[in-house]
Amino acid sequence: MSKDSKTIAEKILSEHAGRDLKAGDIAVVDVDLVMAQDGTGPLTITQIKKMGFNKIAKPQSSIFFIDHAAPSPRKELSDSHKLIREFARETGAILSDINNGVCHQILAEKYVCPGNVLIGADSHTCTAGALCAFATGMGSTDIAVGFALAKTWMMVPHSIKVNLFGRIQKGVFAKDIIIYLIGKITAEGATYKALEFCGETLDFLEMEDRFTISNMAVEAGAKTGLFPSDEKTKQYLESQGRVNCFKEIFPDQGAFYEQSIEIDCSKVEPMVSQPHTVDNVITVSKIDKVKIDQVLIGTCTNGRISDLRIAAGILKNKKISKNVRLLIVPASKDVYIQAVKEGIIEDLINSGAAVLNPGCGPCVGVHQGALADGEVCLSTQNRNFKGRMGNPNAFIYLSSPATAAASALTGYITDPREVLK
Ligand code: SF4
């Protein structure tokens, strides 16, 4: 261990503070991107005004998303959307309206670059850590200051190294790996730490897999979940027409990690989080027969094109159980268009799915797909807290898109390896 060696978090935050930082230091850092969504945006705007700011520092990198209840299901939310639209117009901030999709997916596709600091009024802002950005969620007041000054303050987190090794089995996906990790370290296991992923398995994790893993870092309490910026990062940015912002970022040799966790990915099986906490995990092979009423495939965790391809691969030319409602929500407009082009949407509709417009969909329970009392949903989202999908008397299980699709066929939680044989 060398005293000058830095973790990825220390590197990015030092660069944005203009001085050398180590874990535990408190610093004011420049912010590259700031965002709020339609749930948190109205309070953020109120706070900006309350603090007496009449403009925002960098409109070209300040983004408001209308994705959580898009389109608006009721008058009060329509008023919130109106407030956001008007504020964006007045200040020149970017508005991502109801046609675009989930904030974290759009940020990944269009805005975030390796080495950025991104702060957002949404807990799953950490998704962009997959692109090696120090990306983290904060409360509306902190975000209001971020919009106003393009700066924030924070304590540099200590880092936990997560070494992923071993070949991932057929039927096992990134979602299973992150559920497994959260089960191992618990929902508090990484509180205010940066999870930093490394190891030979990274070569087999595409960017879309990495987004799923970083997205759920906060479910272990982490401040962010970082991947190094490598060849996969470059390929992804190339595919998005943004390769000019690529830069390679790795931790220094000898950087200090508070803890190291080893995960043999060849031993990870299809996993499920059971109600009502994400760390209440079990392998699908060990779970009792759980009858399901609804399946949701989508969200910022697993609504990307690779997820829809996996689901369609399982469901094509088959019919879902007559006892199940299958909801598909592409994470963004681009994902939706691509899925239409590939015939995926047609295959899913023919299997019995209802396809909703890109956005958060039923994930947060403010509109679309609310569950009835006693009903069970298997979802590819990231949270299964009581009441999360609009009903505290319902039950939410979390899984990969493959497990979700296999389960939609049978009507109970099913190991996708049975279908993929
Ligand atoms: Fe939050 Fe769900 Fe929307 Fe993701 S999809 S931003 S978890 S509400």
The molecules bound to the chains, other than polymers, are:
iron/sulfur cluster
What's the mean pLDDT score?
Answer: 97
Count of spatially separate domains: 2
Helix content: 25-40%
Please state the CA-atom Rg, rounded to the nearest Å: 20 Å
Large-scale geometry:
globular
> What CATH architecture of the largest domain would you give?
2-Layer Sandwich
Profile the largest sheet. 5 strands, parallel
Number of helices: 14
| Span between termini | 47 Å
CATH class of the largest domain: Alpha Beta
How would you summarize what this structure contains?
The protein is α/β, with parallel strands linked by helices and 421 residues long. Helix content is 32%, strand content 19%.
Question: Mind explaining what this structure looks like?
Answer:
The structure is a single chain. The chain is of the alpha/beta class and 421 residues long. It has 2 domains: 8-264, Aconitase, domain 3; 271-419, Aconitase, domain 3, CATH 3.30.499.10. Helix content is 32%, strand content 19%. The protein has 14 helices and 18 strands. It has a 5-stranded parallel β-sheet. Helix 7 (207-215) links the parallel strand 9 and strand 10 (224-226). The longest helix is centred in the first third of the chain and has 17 residues, at 75-91. The protein is globular and about 60 Å long. The mean pLDDT is 97. It binds iron/sulfur cluster.
